[in-house]
Amino acid sequence: MKRDLPTLDVASEDFAADPHRVLATLPAGTALARSSRGLEVLSYHACQEVFSSKSFTPCMPELGAVVGVTNRDVLSFVGEELNSHEGAEHRRLRSAVSGFFTATRLRRMREHAAEIATDVVSSAGRARRCDAVGEVGIPAAARFFCRLLGAPESDAEEVHRHSVAFSAILRGENQSEYREFRDGIDAYLLDLFDHRRAEPGDDFLSHLLCTEQDGRRSRAESLRLAITVLGASTEMVAGQIALLIDTLIEHPEQWTLLRERADLVSGAVQECARLRPTVFATERITREDAELCGVPVQRGEFVFVHIIAANRDPEVYREPDRLDITRPIGHPPLTWSVGRHFCVGRVPSVVIMEEVLRAIRARWTAMRHTAPPQTIGQPYSVRPLFMPIAVDQEPASRATEREASTQDRTYNDMWRPQWT
């Protein structure tokens, strides 16, 4: 028997316009609600329980079929996604990605990120006006992921184009363009694999080739993992960088504090991503009859995990609607998920975000909007399209001096134990 729960109209215009305002109308302490599509999970601990329980698993193919995805190739593609796998198969495939991020590579990765971020931020600031999406977020993320993959930085626009197309396919959009997308991204990556086979490097594609030769994975699986990493690279990370800038503009007292304290860069990235994540919610399906917060959940029922609600749970975060870049790391925001299906790109994403913010902090004394940002995607995500800003740039000598004071970076404290 289903327990009475508050209802949440996620299809309403009010929810699309301002999910936070609608969520705030629910009774205090609401962990679960019901909607026409399934069970809506709202509290931090309930969301965490869904992410960690094997009763609830990712369900892109099932949900896609329900919401109108009719292209069988698209459904097959999302079913091949890394996070669509479970058990030993999931661990085997995920290890091919996680095994790449050794301490030595993370050190080198951060050096590359710092170099790219410095160039991008310096270039964007010269004109005193720029687009935080197109002139900061996209070039920084795309060039960084080119380095990570083993592609030349001159491919940044192409890598970003493939990432945008990949995200659209996963959202169930552009079904008729699937074959064009797949042919294009396959051809691009297969060509890169050929180059890396001839000239191996210390990059992700070379790593896949090495482990493939050890018999741990097929060539088709290597290609599919490369598609996942490329596809999940620039669009979401560029958007999160733009939201990072936007959030600090809207909280000038926090920006002033960050300018004064270099040690707060990591905290600022985490706190801004808590308050303003690009992904608002993610979905799961119940594989077997289960219970969540004392509520029975039937097999086959869809469960929607509201990251934006969990990240502002007053039971977990004091003054949850306030940006506080000094906030202690007690509970990590669920922006990149937790548990066995956590975002495989969270480490490189945080690295490039931190280095962009370090470069901004060293070079820009002030930031302000010159027009309202343009975004799409609500109520399930937010994708910044255009964010015009004006900046005051530090003299080059002072910027170099300020940056030098933050060069002693720590490489092994990006993720504390509870993040894994």
From TrEMBL:
| Pfam families xref list | p450 (PF00067)
What are the protein's GO molecular function terms?
heme binding; iron ion binding; monooxygenase activity; oxidoreductase activity, acting on paired donors, with incorporation or reduction of molecular oxygen
Q: Which SUPFAM superfamilies match?
A: Cytochrome P450 (SSF48264)
Gene3D superfamilies reported for this sequence? Cytochrome P450 (1.10.630.10)
Spell out the residue ranges making up region: Disordered: 394-420
Family membership noted in the UniProt record: Belongs to the cytochrome P450 family.
Protein name per its UniProtKB record: Cytochrome P450
